[in-house]
């Protein structure tokens, strides 16, 4: 790291993900495998191992509908089997998850929509998926 950046290192980089129904979204993400750490009224840090995002009780339809999270995973078939087992569309009223597909940019991607319309990419390099 260049000397001028050493004192300005980033310890975490976490997006704020919108939630139309905060309790429902926390449950959705918990079932996907995240652990919720309550930070205060209307804010939770959603952890998965060393990674996390901030789930907020704040919602703007146009913003949520254009929000994308990308998770690069080691075992996409295992993730996809887990996602399918949750029956998310029936249980949460979300758009049906889309199975893994090789995209033109070289990753195999499965698409999942959360209860607020946020799109998740669960992805892996083509040679590992």
Characterization of this structure:
This protein is an alpha/beta fold. It has one domain (12-125): 2,3-Dihydroxybiphenyl 1,2-Dioxygenase, domain 1, CATH 3.10.180. Helix content is 26%, strand content 35%. It contains five helices and eight strands. It has a four-stranded mixed sheet with strand order 1-4-3-2, covered by helices on one side. A four-stranded mixed sheet has the order 5-8-7-6, covered by helices on one side. It is globular, with a radius of gyration of 16 Å. The model has no long low-confidence stretch (mean pLDDT 92).
Provide the fold topology:
Layout (H helix, E strand, L loop, with lengths): L2 H4 L9 E3 L3 H11 L2 E6 L2 E6 L2 E6 L4 H4 L3 E5 L3 H10 L2 H5 L5 E5 L4 E7 L5 E7 L4
Parallel strand pairs: 1-4, 5-8
Antiparallel strand pairs: 2-3, 3-4, 6-7, 7-8
CATH topology: the name is 2,3-Dihydroxybiphenyl 1,2-Dioxygenase, domain 1
- The main sheet orders its strands as 1-4-3-2
Low-pLDDT stretches:
none
Average pLDDT rating: 92
The overall strand count is 8
Write out the CATH superfamily name.
Answer: 2,3-Dihydroxybiphenyl 1,2-Dioxygenase, domain 1
How many helices? The count is 5
How far do the termini sit from each other? 32 Å
Secondary structural class? alpha/beta
Helical proportion, percent range: 25-40%
Order of helices and strands: HEHEEEHEHHEEE
| Count of domain modules | 1
What general outline do the C-alpha atoms trace?
globular
Radius of gyration: 16 Å
Strand portion: 25-35%
CATH architectural category: Roll
């Amino acid at each position: 790291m260049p000397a001028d950046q050493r004192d300005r290192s980033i310890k975490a980089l976490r997006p704020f993900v919108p939630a139309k129904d905060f309790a429902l979204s926390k449950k959705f993400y918990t079932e996907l495998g995240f652990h919720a750490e309550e930070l205060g009224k209307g804010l939770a840090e959603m952890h998965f191992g060393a990674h996390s995002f901030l789930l907020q009780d704040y919602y703007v339809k146009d913003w949520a509908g254009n929000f994308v999270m990308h998770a690069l995973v080691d075992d996409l078939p295992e993730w996809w089997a887990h996602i399918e087992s949750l029956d998310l569309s029936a249980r949460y009223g979300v758009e049906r998850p889309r199975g893994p597909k090789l995209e033109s940019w070289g990753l195999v991607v499965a698409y999942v929509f959360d209860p607020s319309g946020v799109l998740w990419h669960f992805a892996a390099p083509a040679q590992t998926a």
